[in-house]
Amino acid sequence: QVQLVESGGGLVQAGGSLRLSCLASGSILRFNTMGWHRQAPGKQRELVASVTSGGKTNYTDSVKGRFTISRDVAKNTVYLQLNSLEPEDTAVYFCKAVEMRGFLTYNYWGQGTQVTVSS
Q1: Alpha carbon distance 107, 99 (integer Å)
Q2: pLDDT at 1
Q3: Which residue from 74, 82, 109 is spatially nearest to 95, judged by alpha carbons?
Q4: Is residue 17 a contact partner of residue 90, using CB atoms and an 8 Å limit?
Q5: Rounded to the nearest 10 degrees, how much is the dihedral formed by the CA atoms of 71, 5, 38, 81?
Q6: Average pLDDT of the residues in 51-65
Q7: Can you tell me whether residue 101 is helix, strand or coil?
Q8: Of 48, 83, 108, 115, which is least packed with CB atoms within 10 Å of its CB?
Q9: What are residue 118's DSSP bridge partners?
Q10: Going by DSSP bridges, is the β-strand pair 67-72/77-82 parallel, antiparallel, or unpaired?
């Protein structure tokens, strides 16, 4: 059973920074991709950033240059550094891990952590 536990959310003023952490219950090397998604009230969940097992990163346009995804394999943790935060970044941020076993794909989600940016 894979567990993902997010932490690091909170209330911050516009222009501020936060670092989110996603701790996996085992080695993150088993996952093909890990990423961060967010969901604002009344909106659909969207991909924010992802990193593949090979280290390739991907960002949605609205966070490019402000957010950075990284991972620490030894700590089984993926991070999301959020800089220059804007009120529009307010959302619940979810960690997601994707594991592919043969023809099957398994998606695992954390419980989410709230990020609130005040203007």
Answers
A1: 7
A2: 85
A3: 109
A4: no
A5: -40
A6: 96
A7: strand
A8: 83
A9: 13
A10: antiparallel
